[in-house]
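Bench notes, afternoon.
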Amino acid sequence: MKNKLIVLAIAGWALTISPFMAWAGNDDSAQYLPIKKKMAELNLTADQQGKLIALDKEKNAGAKPLFDQMKAIRDKMKTELLKSEPSKPALDNFASQLGDLHKQLVRNMNENLLKVKSILTAEQFSKLVNFDWMRSGPGMHHRMGGPGGDKDSE
């Protein structure tokens, strides 16, 4: 249950600001239409859009190393599991390392959301955090490189 909450928190963080990039861009693919529609409901000013796009770039730059580390640990876990006699202590250590990275991602999410909150009006922010992000489009985990969505495993 705890891991499920962590995954949902990470997904929420990644999806909270990333839609601004898709919404603001010229990508009219079907996968982004629900996100664009929801972002339009916020009635963002041009200044807000610019600030959120800059914040998204900052967030992505900070998250990429963490996701890369998580992928490397998952690769080590796979290697260990494929051994004829996997080491439970090694697997437990990998789990601990992943937990630490998840914790850092959630902390980063909180920091990012506070920055987003400072850009949006109270009404806009309330709408944003109440959007049903998990229904924003198919394959959200896949697009963010999260659980079940390693971009390298396509």
